[in-house]
Specification:
Distance between the termini: 25 Å
CATH topology of the largest domain: Porin
Oligomer: single chain
Strand content: 35-45%
Number of helices: 15
Shape: globular
Radius of gyration: 32 Å
Largest sheet: 16 strands, antiparallel
CATH architecture of the largest domain: Beta Barrel
Number of strands: 29
Length: about 750
């Protein structure tokens, strides 16, 4: 922990921010905004301010403090390192303020406030600190009165007649330059999707008349005429199935002379191999363009997107060239496909420390990206793990887990009697088949888990993804159970039922919304909703076959009791970017599972748990709940239940090098859906569930190495639901003890 003194001293040096500010200069303290109308928000204006103050963490200029720790007169390695990880003082620049004022004025005008007044004021203190106040005086925006279209080309004018309903410019709405640009881009795509290959937004302009009075404007949408306004058809399509860009650059024309061309179903396939690596039929099925069709920009982009989504290619380039006969208005299409390695092997060693279990694991993975020469992706994974857990009975005891998993990803819709080609082509739908077998040897029991799933997933737009698994088949067999542990769980019929052999046959659906950008510079949301049900088909079969028996407590299928339940949960996360060095992340989770029919309880594998690295970090994994119940006689805590509520908030901030910090607060618990007479306080009740909420807080350190992130979180309990009803807050009830604190090592962010 050598870096802890550096962190502490940097915060101290942040208290003297003007250490390296000369006497004739001032430090930029902050930018403030005064806006006279709610039509414009300060968050809209802030990006146009050219000069930003030094970054802050908890109000302190931490990175400036790192810089100030250095001696700028010395060039040794340590001082250079401090200056590299720190941040120079931001010296107030009058010219930057002037340019910012002009940019703000331009932005406000673009939103319809043509007569806005934007001024700047500098407030300087005796401590060499300056605050810039940007004042924006606006009234009401100009609104659009009329829209006129001046389109010289007859063909494009005829297209416009059928497209006016889709225009984003609406009469009576405030003038907005961004809206005009959006309409320009939309109209450009619309025209190019109808064969106008050489058309671009350069031919589009807007004329705005704001002199008509009454705070209104007239807009004239102009499309200039040119020879380029002609429709083009695709002549030939040339597909380089194994294009090697580096070799092509190095060898030039010699590379292309050594290639062979095959004409197949109207397409020219060009390759250096005798047998195609990827079947020609698959490539053709992935294309939305074909010889003889008019040029369409959207179909071209969809073709490129689907070929990339196949995961068989490293690069996919689609270009068009004019044919030799310019009067024919035809273009040739050239598709260059650069293959990924067809097979790969990977060996992974990992260390684990979760819930007090310290150990390691080994994963061996084999992958074939083109198993049947149709971009079918096959994966085989062998894994093993060995961990140590501390028990009350014998101290450290071993946990062993071994498993094998195979998966097949098919880039098509695999369903009997239904092809759905249009749906597949539109959403890049893929079929997933997964089978696995897992052996777990715990100190208190040994079990095997075999499962198989069959389903589909597809994307809608850039942010939405759907997963449908109409078939999920699991068999859980309890091979061994410790007699002491069995007597412990037998005290509750609910818990005992969850630790039985069970067969799960059902289906599931999941929806994910994620608008996070790659650069993580904007606020973003993540939403995941899951729905799962099991046992209904088997129960129906049971009734149809008249296999019910009056003395049977649990119906069986292939000599195995089957589970019957419904389960749904939603996970919502919001990431707010505070500044370039800090962000605030919020998370809420709600899950409910209801057993019915053939089940008295949800199978153990499908139940919820709380505590641990990705949950309420003041508790070790699976040691919290259910509700206010406490089992002081248990030698092995593995608490699970049917309902889960969890709320998390985490303030993340960059420190230096690869080191990041975090301050977090967690709250939540788990409950049973049905009453458990053997365990008081476990059932969820609307009128008192809030009394069972556990609350924890803590600090975290993260090491971001780009390719993976290691995390060390220190959690502390604040409110413990097992404490007396009158006061569950630990700090006002009793002294803290060692079990009120946790340390968690994990990989990746908690959420």
């Amino acid at each position: 922990m050598y870096f802890l003194p550096i962190i502490s001293v940097a915060f101290l040096f942040s208290c003297s921010p003007t250490k390296y500010v000369s006497e004739d200069e001032t430090l930029l303290e902050k930018n403030r905004f005064k806006i006279s109308n709610r039509g414009i928000k300060s968050s809209q204006i802030e990006p146009y301010v050219r000069q930003k103050p030094n970054k802050r963490i908890f109000g302190a200029r931490y990175h400036l403090g790192l810089y100030n720790m250095s001696n700028i007169d010395k060039e040794n390695a340590f001082n250079k390192w401090l200056r590299a990880i720190g941040e120079e003082p931001v010296i107030f620049d009058p010219h930057a303020m002037y340019m910012s004022t002009e940019q703000i004025r331009s932005f406000v005008s673009s939103k319809g406030y043509f007569d806005a007044e934007v001024t700047d004021t500098v407030i300087t203190t005796e401590k060499q600190r300056s605050t810039v106040v940007y004042s924006v005086d606006i009234s009401t925006p100009y609104v659009i009165r009329n829209i006129a279209y001046e389109i010289a080309d007859t063909n494009i004018r005829n297209l416009y007649v059928f497209d006016t309903a889709n225009s984003v410019i609406v009469r009576g709405t405030p003038y907005d330059l961004d809206m005009l640009k959006q309409e320009m881009q939309r109209f450009e795509r619309f025209v190019r999707d109808h064969g106008f290959y050489q058309f671009s937004s350069d031919y589009i302009s807007f004329e705005v008349d704001s002199t008509i009075g009454n705070r209104q404007v007239d807009i004239n949408f102009v499309v200039r005429s040119a020879d380029a306004h002609s429709t083009f058809r695709i002549n030939n399509i040339y597909i380089h199935t194994d294009f090697e860009p580096r070799t092509a650059i190095e060898q030039g024309d010699e590379y292309y002379r050594n290639l062979d061309t095959t004409f197949y179903q109207g397409y020219y396939f060009i390759s250096s191999k005798d047998k195609p690596v990827v079947k020609h039929d698959f490539i053709i099925q992935s294309l939305y363009i074909a010889p003889g069709l008019i040029y369409n920009q959207t179909d071209t982009e969809l073709s490129q997107s689907r070929l990339r989504a196949s995961r068989a290619y490293h690069l996919v380039n689609i270009n068009f060239n004019n044919t030799a006969d310019s009067s024919a208005k035809t273009i040739d299409c050239v598709i260059q496909l650069t293959l990924l390695p067809q097979q790969s092997y990977k060996v992974e060693l990992e260390g684990t420390h979760s819930g007090g279990y310290l150990g390691g694991g080994l994963n061996l993975t084999y992958q074939h990206k083109n198993l049947f020469r149709g971009a079918e992706q096959f994966t085989l994974n062998l894994k093993g793990a060995y961990e140590l857990m501390r028990t009350e009975r014998q101290g450290l005891e071993a946990i062993q887990e071994y498993g094998v998993e195979s998966g097949l990803r098919l880039p098509n819709f695999l369903m009997p009697f239904f092809k759905g080609e249009n749906f597949v082509r539109r959403y890049n739908l893929v079929t997933n088949i997964v089978a696995s077998y897992n052996y777990q040897d715990m100190p208190y029991y040994t079990r095997t888990i075999a499962n198989m799933s069959f389903g589909y997933n597809w994307r809608v737009g850039s942010y939405n993804e759907h997963f449908v698994n109409p078939l999920q088949f699991n068999i859980v067999s309890l091979e061994r159970i410790d007699s002491v542990f069995y007597s412990q769980i037998s005290a509750s019929s609910y818990v005992a039922y969850a630790y039985q052999d069970v067969l799960i046959l059902g289906g599931s659906y999941s929806y994910i919304f994620n608008n996070q950008l790659t650069n993580r510079t904007q606020d973003h949301w993540f939403v995941r909703w899951n729905f799962e049900t099991a046992g209904n088909l088997l129960r129906a079969y049971n009734r149809i076959s008249n296999s019910d028996k009056s003395d049977a407590t649990t119906h069986q299928f292939i000599n195995q009791p089957f589970a019957q339940y419904v389960k749904t949960d939603v996970d919502i996360r919001y990431n707010h970017i505070v500044n370039p060095a800090a962000s605030m992340v919020y998370r809420g989770f709600l899950g409910v599972a209801v057993p019915y029919g053939n089940s008295k309880a949800i199978p153990f594998e499908r139940q919820y748990f709380a505590g641990g690295a990705n949950s309420i970090r003041g508790w070790q994994v699976r040691t919290l709940g259910p509700g206010s119940h406490s089992d002081t006689s248990a030698t092995f805590l593995n608490q699970t239940a049917d309902i889960k509520i969890e709320l998390n908030a985490e303030y993340r901030f960059k420190l230096f090098w690869v080191l990041e910090g975090a301050l977090f607060a967690d709250a939540g618990n788990i409950w049973t859906y049905k009453s458990d007479l053997d365990r008081a306080g476990t059932q969820f009740k609307f009128n008192r569930f809030y009394e069972d909420l556990a609350v924890g807080t803590g600090l975290g350190l993260r090491f971001d190495f780009n390719f993976f992130l290691a995390r060390l979180d220190f959690g502390m309990k604040l409110r413990d639901p097992i404490m007396p009803e009158s006061n569950k807050w630990i700090f006002s009830n009793r002294s803290y003890v060692w079990r009120d604190f946790t340390a968690v090592i994990a990989i990746g962010y908690p959420f």
